[in-house]
């Protein structure tokens, strides 16, 4: 019997993710890896990954389809990623039921209705950043990329002003992959305590927000109940996690890339590309999530090269590596906003495709257009901050984004004539 080669151990801190993704691709369309002590198949070939993401023989329900679930819950730092009870970890009928409940929050109409709110938040954040003196260094991740999605998801869920930011540190640690199991468990406990407080506040004073709607679905009575208490908490958890960290990284990566590639920014300013093009190429080239744990083989799954993902084995969707697969795009490592085909898997594929994709895209397009319109001479200042990757093999961003804004006194938009700024009340 041929012995399996030892799995490749992923770097928990992802210090050189691009090199690691290239190595994974070189090991084949799927390869055995170790992710923080758990063995899984990393899939980097986009054709194979799409097939698995749409296959009824691949599940996200660890309780039903992963023999390693009990051990992982006790000892794995990423236990929350497989133990939560929401549509992210659901399979079959449970997934369809939970997705139908949440989908209205991200309808095209509701996302469009949020545009003025997003624009207002962006303007307020830029106003605050504009106070920096010419030549000073501003951490754009801290003062812009972070607070925007937190404020938006707070609006969507009805979190009182000033309280949404309390989730920030706890959500950051959900994506961290350098915590001990004890540290991760403590973070999860604190996060659920905050969610319980939010649910209690909404039960006492319900509103028109999504949190209140979800709570009402769980209180229709024993016969009409459509959402259990556990599903309620974990659905709120999913909406906060998915709506926050990923958008932070998208804005971070887009700003960083444009400031290091002025020719790409010129394409936008001179009308050869749009901010939507920037967002899509960023999602392809530097997606907010590198790897997404986990899925499981419901039955033996034969691979094109003759190997088999055995029933019960875990599968890791390696989105960042797949996005730059040389068989998918020409010059995949090159960032090019004029690229005709920018297809990517940043939001997943199939039935688990991210419901918040349209909202994330809208937030990023508004944020980028307004940022580069307000600060057309901005330049990266790497000496002024820590631009190392965040210590996570999941999250794909920088520890900080130091920028010398050099603001002008007008709000010139990309390719637009300068407009006089409205007077502010003193």
Quick overview:
The protein has 426 residues and is an alpha+beta fold. It has helices spanning 17-26, 46-53, 62-65, 69-75, 79-83, 93-102, 108-113, 115-129, 140-145, 147-157, 168-175, 181-204, 210-217, 229-260, 262-269, 275-285, 319-323, 357-374, and strands at 8-9, 30-35, 38-43, 58-59, 137-139, 292-297, 301-302, 308-309, 314-317, 379-380, 402-404.
Q: What is the structural class?
A: alpha+beta
Sketch the major β-sheet: 6 strands, mixed
CATH superfamily: Cytochrome P450
CATH architecture designation: Orthogonal Bundle
Structure annotation, total helices? 18
Global outline: globular
- Total beta strands: 11
In whole angstroms, how far apart are the ends? 80 Å
Give the count of structural domains. 1
- How would you state the average pLDDT, rounded? 90
What is the helix content? 40-55%
| C-alpha Rg (nearest Å) | 22 Å
Strand order of the largest sheet: 1-2-3-9-6-4
The CATH topology is given as Cytochrome p450
Q: What's the helix-strand series?
A: EHEEHEHHHHHHEHHHHHHHHEEEEHHEE
Oligomer state of the chains in this structure: single chain
* Proportion of residues in extended strands: 5-15%
Which stretches are poorly predicted, pLDDT < 50 over at least 5 residues? 408-426
